[in-house]
Design goal:
The protein contains 3 helices and 14 strands. It is an alpha+beta fold and about 220 residues long. Residues about 1-20 have low confidence and may be disordered.
Length: about 220
């Protein structure tokens, strides 16, 4: 999946215009998406917050994340963790398509795309114990590749099957746990793929639904 992640879609610059607040830039990216955004359903009553959107080379919004609970900080392996959060990743279900310059073909998005984005998202809030900071980039590269290998083989023994409600309909998800947290991925009847990751909140009790007004989360 060929995407470029960024925090929201930048508002067009106009002469004499002041700096657009970060929250406004962020929600603008979500509002540009031609697909519905998903989050935890109404059973979750805690705080919700926008994270970032990902775009294709031509600027089309292709995926994005919405956080729930405590805003996570980087956690070292072996340290006490009291944060409780879950992040829901919505990915547009796009078929194989031509690149914007017409010279190639972009990979189709799939449940594996959602699983990989969720896996990498969880990695961004982890830090192996006793690792020198200069080695973190190498560790992230290795773990990102591992996350892709796992996401590309959702039928392997590394994944379990979990049924969770999506818009009230029981829906199968691929699920796995690690020392850093959990990751799951599935598809919806609304034509998008869902990924999710978290720590401190059990994935078994979660449900998902369309966010009625994403602007309210800014």
């Amino acid at each position: 999946m060929e995407t470029t992640s960024r925090v929201g879609a930048q508002a067009p610059a106009t002469e004499g215009a002041g700096q657009v607040p970060t929250a406004r830039r962020t929600v603008d990216g979500y509002l540009l998406a031609p697909f519905p955004w998903y989050g935890l359903d109404e059973a979750f009553t805690g705080p919700r917050w926008l994270m970032q959107v990902g775009t294709t080379a031509d600027g089309s919004v292709e995926h994005g994340s919405i956080g729930h609970g405590d805003e996570p900080s980087v956690r070292s392996e072996g340290t006490e963790d009291t944060e409780r959060f879950a992040v829901v990743v919505t990915v547009a279900a796009n078929p194989v398509r031509r690149s914007s310059d017409g010279t190639g073909v972009l990979e189709a998005t799939s449940v594996s795309s959602a699983a990989w984005l969720a896996g990498v998202g969880l990695l961004s809030y982890t830090w192996p114990g006793q690792m020198d900071h200069t080695l973190r980039d190498d560790w992230l590269d290795q773990q990102t590749e591992t996350a892709w290998v796992l996401a590309d083989d959702l039928g392997s023994s590394d994944w379990a099957t979990l049924s969770l409600p999506v818009d009230g309909v029981p829906t199968p998800f691929h699920y796995r746990e690690s020392e850093y947290g959990w990751v799951l991925a599935g598809s919806t009847q609304a034509g998008v793929h869902l990924g999710a990751y978290g720590r401190g909140m059990s994935a078994y009790g979660l449900g998902f639904s369309v966010v009625k007004d994403v602007a309210e989360l800014a």
